[in-house]
Amino acid sequence: MITMIAALIVFGIVIFFHELGHFLAAKKQGIKVEQFAIGFPPKLFAFKRGETEYRICAIPCGGYIKMAGENPDEELKGEPWEFSSAPVRKRMKIVLAGPLMNFVLGFVLFSLIAMLGVPTYSNIVGKVEKDSFAQTAGILAGDKIIKVNKTKTNNWTELISAISSSSGTRFETCKVELTILRDNQEIKKEITREKKDKEIGIMPYVSTKFKEVVKGCPAQKAGLKKGDVVTSINGKQVLQWDEMAEIIRKNPGKELIFGIDREGESMNVKITPAAKPGYDVDKKKEIKVGSIGILACSEMYRVNPLVALWHGLLQTLATIQVIYLILWQLIQGALSYKLLAGPIGIVQMSGEQAQLGLIYLLGFIAMLSVNLGVVNLLPLPILDGGHVLFLTLEKIRGKALHTKTQIVIQWVGITIIVCLTLLVCNNDIRRLLGL
User: Which of 28, 76, 215, 303 has the most CB atoms around it within 10 Å of its CB?
Assistant: First the structure.
């Protein structure tokens, strides 16, 4: 029930704002909007206000607005309130408004999350990567980094932000001074890096104590509770979250014996990690990874509204960049199409994020909204990007493509979209069946 409610909320919000963008832009450009629908037919219920009929439909995987004069087969009267009779610049604004609204929604939600608080960890180093800048500078696991240059750092988020903002230009080397607390003594270490080198090779210390245990997951079924601490796995001592996570990840479907400390009482618990889809970047192939459904203890990092807006903008831009990178890697074959999720997968993820809490659900909605904005701008017929392509050609040619040509191209686009939909749905079903 939680999963279905969460999915309806997620789909409803993302689709509503996308169509709202088209709707508001059409109204502003003086175009008559005949229907505003959330979901696809059959219609569940509707009401009419002014010239527009507002619909809620049964299939919640989309939505649409119907504007006067939008259909190529429709006979135009040459009225200024008809979509196809409007100048190209007006139609372009209407088409682009949907994806733009998705980006705005993502920005607003990412900013809200920054104000409500995002999980972060202490500024204690848990791991130093081999041959990294940090190792070269003499940083050790257990060091507490309390200052970057002259900026104080109280948690891991502030630490990484300070390091990232302390770089020179792309082609300019710069020196970053870290003030470290080691054995109650302050030590200064200097790292030389370039802006293009985003990472210096350190990971935070995170204890093996559980903040949450996800309902229905292997850990919860085995009787683990919030506050439990993992001390060993198959007799091997584990001191940090990364050590534990790596063992779980490498053992999907294999029974493991967890040593647990619960308020001073020791016990052994057998847990078989669930096999989740993953991807091996080095070998470029899909793999199964283990998961037991636990969250690490963290503290909440909050910022004031002005800083939150900056965080929201950066997160939105970073999400757009990552999505385009993934699309390019899919085209190149560097990533497998089997990693793509369809409607069923999104429903599952919605339920999982809802169980983790409001912050996680808002973050999922924000990422999905930005994702929808990017995908809709792809130059495929029936998507907004396809309409942009048609309008661009019309502007260059001085006239629209022939109606029959548009219909043929749109049917090609529909065929492509249907094939992609079947592909991702097949991925969802395979995951459900554990294939």
Answer: 303
Q: Superfamily assignment of 125-204 in CATH?
A: PDZ domain (2.30.42.10)
* CA dist 57 → 3, 28, 63, 64, 429 (Å): 20, 26, 8, 11, 24
Query: 124: which 2 tokens?
Result: 């204690």
Using the structure block, give the residue that is written with the tokens 């350190």: 202
Q: Which residues are catalytic?
A: 19
Amino acid identity, residue 402?
Answer: H
Query: What b-and-e string marks burial along 373-395, b requiring 16 or more CB atoms within 10 Å of the CB?
Result: bbbbbeebbbbbbbbbbbbeeee
Closest CA to 90 of 110, 108, 70: 70
Domain ranges for the chain, please list them.
2-116+366-433, 125-204, 210-297
Residue 144 CA to residue 205 CA, distance in Å, equals 10
Number of C-beta neighbours around residue 305 at 10 A: 10
Do residues 271 and 280 lie in contact, with contact meaning Cβ atoms separated by under 8 Å?
Answer: no
* Residue that the structure tokens 């967890």 belong to: 258
Please identify, in words, the CATH class of the domain defined by 210-297: mainly beta
Distance CA 351, CA 2 (A): 6
Can you tell me which residue has the tokens 């063992």?
247
Q: Mean pLDDT per 10-residue run, the chain (435 residues)?
A: 76 90 93 88 87 85 83 74 88 94 96 90 90 88 91 88 67 77 90 67 91 88 92 93 92 94 92 82 74 88 89 91 85 73 74 80 93 91 87 85 78 80 73 63
CA 101, CA 169: separation in Å to the nearest integer? 33
Q: What burial class does residue 297 get, using C-beta atoms within 10 Å of its C-beta: 0-12 exposed, 13-18 middle, 19+ buried?
A: middle
253-272: buried (b, 16+ CB within 10 Å) or exposed (e) per residue?
eeebebbbbeeeeeeebebb
The per-residue b/e assignment along 11-45, b for 16 or more CB within 10 angstroms, e otherwise, is: bbbbbbbbbbbbbebbeebebbbeebbbbeeeeee
Q: Which of 339, 315, 317, 343 is nearest to 327 (CA)?
A: 339
Which residues, at least 6 apart from 362, have a Cβ–Cβ distance to it below 8 Å?
Answer: 109, 112, 113, 116
Q: Are 288 and 90 in contact (CB under 8 A)?
A: no
User: Is it true that 125-204 and 210-297 share their CATH fold?
Assistant: yes
- Helix intervals (H) in 117-238: 133-137, 156-164, 218-221
Rounded Cα gap, residues 385 and 398, in angstroms? 20
Number of residues that make up the chain:
435
Helical spans, DSSP H, in 47-175: 88-116, 133-137, 156-164
In terms of pTM, does the model score above 0.70? yes
